[in-house]
Amino acid sequence: MSEKLTTNKGIPIANDQASMTTGENSSYTVLQDTQLIEKLAHFDRERIPERVVHAKGAGAHGVFEVTNDLSKYTRAKFLSEVGKKTEILVRFSTVGGEKGSADAKRDPRGTAFKFYTEEGNYDMVGNNIPIFFIRDAIKFPDFVHTQKRLSKNNLADADMFWDFLSLTPESLHQATFLFTDRCTPYSYRHMHCFSSHTYLWYNENEEYVWVKYHFKTKQGIKNLTNDEAITMCGVNPDHATEDLYLAIEDGNYPQWDVYVQIMTPEEALEYEFDPFDVTKVWYHEDYPLIPLGVITLNRNPQNYFNEIEQAAFAPSNFVPGIGSSPDRLLQGRLFAYEDTQRHRLGPNHHQIPVNRPKNAKIANYQRDGSMNMDESGVNDPNYYPNSFDDIKPDISFKPPAIEVQAVIDKHTRAIEDVDFIQVGEFWRRVLSDEDKQHLVYNLQQHLGNASQRIQLRQTALFYKAEPEYGIAVAKALGLDIKKVEELSKLSPEERAEATKA
Ligand code: HEM
């Protein structure tokens, strides 16, 4: 049955192929063509700000199923029993590029999960890498700027990228990971996902533990080499978006096994690495992976803009039983996501269908604001406490009290030898000979574009972590190995002084 074409107010349209003009051929257009004005004005506003990071992405709907009962550690209802299923939304992304950038670019991949639980929406916003470049939120805007474009010419720049990283040695672990083939994954389906941060789990008795999440791909790890990735950027800039979409359309539903590592508060005091430092992992032999569940992606969005572009994931969205940790980077993230979403999507972004709790009811006295659609606010009262309705807080949801000893200061965190140990171990124990060759080649292809003084400073960090690693990179870049070794022995301040412009 044919339908009438209408304006946005439902008024029938007589002619949608011609503007209202003063004559048949060249002529003036009249302001009273309100249909034309509405159509152009709406088009003029079709774009919303893209995400300041992670602008290019793809997503899908699915389900999370519990396979192992860990409810003694967390009161989160969606984790309460084996077999329990929760609807989820997932968005994968690259980090640095714009919304139209190529999926195959070397970059960490963002891995954002929204669990529509019966106690509200829980978001787990991680990456395909278990660690991060920095460990204090105040460094994040500077770090991101180095991945973007120079102001003067709007070009990416190897000098600014490596200048910042080499002056920020805590980035070494992730900088190494970034130049393995894991950061040019074959598709979003063929990579692991990690919380990277440490989070809090607590039970009804207010007992708590620290956890890290790991999502292991059931499709297996599959990567592109550096050269394959460069080719893919040109051949199909949307290759990973297309791969995810087609796999789900074909009924070939991707899956991830979900695990947690668990550390008690007592163990956290003793561990050889700071368990809340996001530049470090917890070794699996110290804290083995404990199965938790399985994720299956089984439904493509019907409208990409509505369901994926407008999706708002925030690390601050916790449900009872899960909380944050004293990770200084995470603490900053607890503010930044909701804040950017108020700007990107508006103060009522939680009312967009994909962001609304699907299995929990919202009941509070927040009202109005731009684009408000909330019908629950039609009834007064609009304040708490009141003596008309019966909406009230429930003290049984109180999280455990956590004791802290505080000295408020701008506590600068020094770079110490311990910051290099895990990078050396990664080179020696985790990477195969082929992985090492690829890593060195990938670094040469990128770091080779930076000024030599910056190459020296960065390669000294590789050397400090593991001489064999530093020597391999120095050779690939044609650097003086003696100089690299000397620089590796300096303090960060001395090294910066010895390599300044
Ligand atoms: C202080 C550190 C960080 C800050 C300030 C920050 C800030 C942001 C902002 C503003 C966005 C855009 C969100 C939106 O527009 O909806 C974003 C997206 C994202 N961030 Fe971060 N970020 C930080 C660290 C991290 C870390 C450590 C990870 C991973 C472990 C991460 C993973 C992601 C992901 C996956 C997205 C995309 C979410 C989506 O698909 O919508 N970020 N971040």
List the helices and strands and how they pair.
Elements: H1 34-44, E1 57-66, E2 85-94, E3 109-117, E4 120-127, H2 140-147, H3 158-166, H4 172-178, E5 193-194, E6 199-202, E7 208-217, H5 226-235, H6 239-249, E8 255-263, H7 265-270, E9 290-299, H8 304-309, E10 322-323, H9 328-344, H10 418-430, H11 433-447, H12 452-465, H13 467-477, H14 481-488, H15 492-498
Antiparallel strand pairs: 1-2, 1-9, 2-3, 3-4, 5-7, 6-7, 6-10, 7-8, 8-9
Explain this structure to me?
This protein is α+β, with helices and mostly antiparallel strands and 501 residues long. It has three domains: 1-46, Cytochrome C Oxidase, Chain J (Irregular); 57-133 and 182-355, Catalase core domain (Catalase HpII,  Chain A, domain 1, Beta Barrel); 146-167 and 420-501, Hemocyanin, N-terminal domain (Up-down Bundle). 31% of the residues lie in helices and 15% in strands. Strands 1, 2, 3, 4, 5, 6, 7, 8, 9 and 10 form a ten-stranded antiparallel beta sheet that branches. α3 crosses α12 and α12 packs antiparallel against α13. The N and C termini lie far apart (72 Å). Bound molecules: protoporphyrin IX containing FE. Protoporphyrin IX containing FE binds at residues 51-54, 57, 91, 93, 110-112, 125-127, 132, 137, 140, 196, 311-313, 329, 332-333, 336-337, 340-341, 344.
Q: What structural category characterises the helix and strand content? A: alpha+beta
CATH structural architecture of the largest domain: Beta Barrel
Secondary structure tally: strands: 10
SSE pattern: HEEEEHHHEEEHHEHEHEHHHHHHH
Give the biggest beta sheet: 10 strands, antiparallel
CATH superfamily of the largest domain: Catalase core domain
- Identify the overall geometry: globular
Task: Classify the fold: give the CATH topology of the largest domain.
Answer: Catalase HpII,  Chain A, domain 1
Radius of gyration: 26 Å
Text of the CATH class of the largest domain: Mainly Beta
How many domain units? 3
- Average pLDDT: 97
Low-confidence stretches: none
